[in-house]
Write a structure and sequence with these properties.
This protein is α/β, with parallel strands linked by helices and 335 residues long. It is built from 13 helices and 14 strands.
Length: 335
Amino acid sequence: MSARRSAEVVEPARTTYREALREGLREALRGDDRVFLMGEDVGRYGGCFGVSLGLLEEFGPDRIRDTPLSESAFVGAGIGAALGGLRPVVEIMTVNFSLLALDQIMNNAATLLHMSGGQLNVPVVIRMTTGAGRQLAAQHSHSLESWYAHIPGIRVLTPATVDDARHMLAAALDDPDPVVLFEHGSLYNEEGVLDGTIDSVGLDSAAVRRPGADVSVITYGGSLPKALAAAEELAGEGIGAEVVDLRSLRPLDDATVMESVARTHRAVIVDEGWRSGSISGEISARITEQSFFDLDAPVRRVCSQEVPMPYARQLEEAALPQPASIVAAVRQAVA
């Protein structure tokens, strides 16, 4: 009998979105002494959403800094540290609270390179939780990414997969200018398999997460799982939905979006922000400007209802884009 050697089967590494973010932070802190994390409850408590759990014990209070409850103050301190040569990662508990630091972000971080004639870079990364779906009511649940995507001088990222959660921070810290990174709260517990062949990601390109020939479903962040669920249901009806994950809202990857629309000739944009003045409106305008003659049907949008986010679960669910509303919009687009 011939001898046979049994090969050891190595299972792909599974992780949660939260753990992938934590490992990205850990890698950044280990790799560069200039990197430090600051924000409300990021140290002893481990972060309001548990992302920095254990990092204080590993890196100490000089690298993991709890701050007072003043977004304007600690975001301003992060900007100052970046001007001084450090690489701060500033965590804001939720996007709603980031409005208290909007003056610092827009009037300082985003403008200093321009106003200094190119002399002052501000290499700060600002992380914040965004989005609804967790019954946290109207002061903790909105999606204001489009407000930040409106501002020249900053980069706006929306990681939606464990690979992007794991690797986007390193790429953001390499950027000499301000980066705002939105983490959708509904994704923290999501599990996925890390791609072991990836050790870095780009920050300028969208990604086609599911190919299809009949309609382009364009989305980002916490709406990506809903779009993929809708595409799976539509496949059972013989409708091939191509799902495009924008990944970056500033800059937008127009080329990937237009290439998808050229293949499918229809577009549905899913955006958890309010419809009026939304990123979905910007994408719709760009499709009309650049790919009008590729369209066989009007661009359709699925957005949150224009109300402060309700607390009651059934009302919150009704206010948000859901797989069923995405399916309905696609059916209208292909009818």
